[in-house]
Amino acid sequence: MSHGFQSDNVTSIAAALDRMEDKVYDIIVCDADLQDGSGLDLVSKAAIVDPATWIIGITSDETMSELMTKKGCNRVVCSRLAPDELRIAILTK
What's the pTM? Predict the structure, then answer.
């Protein structure tokens, strides 16, 4: 638990999808680069699994930011600003 948030951490699309089978998440934070593929794949699948889940993408690439939004991210934060901007994105969900 950090900053009052409880979190689960995974580094791959497969692991994230496994976790989503067993648990409902209020928010998913997804990096654009994952071990087994693009964060775009996870965003697309997460948006289908539970459309009510708020999805926040993290990337430093403007084109990827636009793609993540189109695929289902509710908000995308710049990875250079991630800690503070991410906290704000979560708190203003």
Answer: 0.81
